[in-house]
Amino acid sequence: RIMATVERTISINAPVEKVFDYISDATNEPEYLPSQVEAEYVTRTEEGVGSRYRWVYKLLGIRFEGESTCTEYVRNERIVTETKGGIVSTWTYTFEPENGGTKLTLVVDYTIPIPVLGRFAEALVLRQNEREADLAMANLKAIMEA
């Protein structure tokens, strides 16, 4: 197993509430996460924490399935989700007001199940995830500013 972290910050010309509401709905993930093909709620709670959803992710042609649980939810400030399944990860979104817009930071801590992939693929996955993060942030910006 290898642990890695991807971190990105972007300025979005849209109010914090709009960006937060969009990201807090997990079913929107396939719209901005390039490799995510499905997201469907198992349980959705009023307060956010405890909401669970199933996802399907295709990375370098390999299909991963798993479940995510919201472990922290502070309206218009922070969302933390923990995933288990093919890929174990923690996703932390932080929202800060910035000149009428939003400064959005995404930090993903994840573990790659190396035995599945081997050493060569490890470098590919790390690079691919960096690219995915760039695309996800660019997609979020485009969707929110449209």
TrEMBL record:
Pfam family, one: Polyketide_cyc2
InterPro entries: Polyketide_cyclase/dehydratase (IPR019587), START-like_dom_sf (IPR023393)
Protein's recorded name: Coenzyme Q-binding protein COQ10 START domain-containing protein
